[in-house]
């Protein structure tokens, strides 16, 4: 679901930038900031780049889930694991003012759409109930450390935390028949 979640974010952000900023399709990519050789990928040229920079296990224990109804049977599965994703939105453009303009538009998109759920986004992929976005404030020293760890030179950017992304394999552990009919007499 991590890949599906980020692909959905890329798609809806791109749709917004194409519609509201007159950008061409393909303006947003899901990619590393630099490749394994330390070079900026050509795919990132003049794009908003979404990069996963941290994956954090949600420590609030989830005790719900684990049961699915399949008509006349109930299937037991392990409850989903939930993660918080830190994504870096960086503006990789030749023109600095264009980078700032599209980064500002991207921030505006997330300010307007900080919570995707089934009610406000019926195209949310199957298996996701919601995606919630929060800005991650980072002191300049942490920002410097992040860009150094990525092996890249700083680009205009912002980090968002996406809360409660579920990962579940769906492997059935056991099945039980549903109760179809009950009968009995109650006696005092």
Write up this protein.
This protein is an alpha+beta fold and 188 residues long. It has a single domain (2-169), classed as STM4215-like, CATH 3.30.2000. It is built from three helices and nine strands, in the order H-E-E-E-E-E-H-E-E-H-E-E. It has helices spanning 2-21, 96-112, 140-150, and strands at residues 28-30, 47-57, 67-69, 73-77, 81-92, 115-117, 130-135, 157-167, 172-177. The strands form two sheets. Strands 1-2-5-8-7-6 form a six-stranded mixed sheet. Strands 3-4-9 form a three-stranded antiparallel sheet, with no helix packed on it. Strand 3 (67-69) and strand 4 form a beta hairpin. Helix 1 (2-21) crosses helix 2. The protein is elongated. The protein starts with a helix and ends in an 11-residue tail after the last strand. The model has no long low-confidence stretch (mean pLDDT 87).
